[in-house]
Amino acid sequence: MKPNKGFSLIELLIAMLILMFVMIGFLAGLIKYIQFSIDARMKDLMDKAVKDWSGYLESLPYNASCSPVGYSFGSAVCDLSTNQCSFENIDSDGDGIPDFYDPYSGNNNNYSSAPLSTASWLWVGPTIANLTCNNYPHPTTYSLVGNRRVYTALTVATITATGGAEMGRAYGITAWYFSPIDRRYKYESSLLIKRKP
């Protein structure tokens, strides 16, 4: 009998199985790479949003007529030498994030499926009327990376002296997103204190 040249059916099936596992591993790695890439772009947009809003609020005249009107945190006692304010100690939902920088009332990771259900203490946010200040164009309250959003919200408090006179304003600027990797809440916050002229 003449020996067969070539591969048997079993050898071909084994080779196909090995190739299939290699392809599955490659695709899983590719998906992870895409998720990490989107996460990095979202983080960059988050950083940019905080810087853009800080620059915008810093550039506004102190007495600019803004809408919405009022303060989301009323008056606060602040030590202007250390930039520590009383509102930074309020954490009404117990999630470890001071309300002044917290866009949600509750565990923030629970809002990944309802990201627009923001807290009532926000001055400006993705679902709250856009800020208008004497027709100065402002940055957006959200940015897109594909179909994913990076959100921005603001809180504001007046800084008062012992006698109740207004000394300045404190702005809490928070940008956040839900990671495409694990759907966890990621954020960056900044405090801007603007002294009254």
TrEMBL record:
Q: Per the annotation, which location comes first and is thus the protein's main one?
A: membrane
Transmembrane stretches, by residue range? 12-34
| This protein's UniProt keywords | Cell inner membrane, Cell membrane, Membrane, Methylation, Transmembrane, Transmembrane helix
GO CC, alphabetical = plasma membrane; type II protein secretion system complex
Q: Does the keyword DNA-binding apply?
A: no
| InterPro entries named in the record | N_methyl_site, T2SS_protein-GspI
Presence of keyword Metal-binding: no
Where is the protein localized? Cell inner membrane
Lipid bilayer topology = Single-pass membrane protein
Annotated GO biological process: protein secretion by the type II secretion system
Instruction: Spell out the family assignment given in the record's similarity comment.
Output: Belongs to the GSP I family.
What's the name of the protein?
Answer: Prepilin-type N-terminal cleavage/methylation domain-containing protein
Species source reads: Hydrogenobacter hydrogenophilus
Q: What is the lineage of its organism?
A: Bacteria, Pseudomonadati, Aquificota, Aquificia, Aquificales
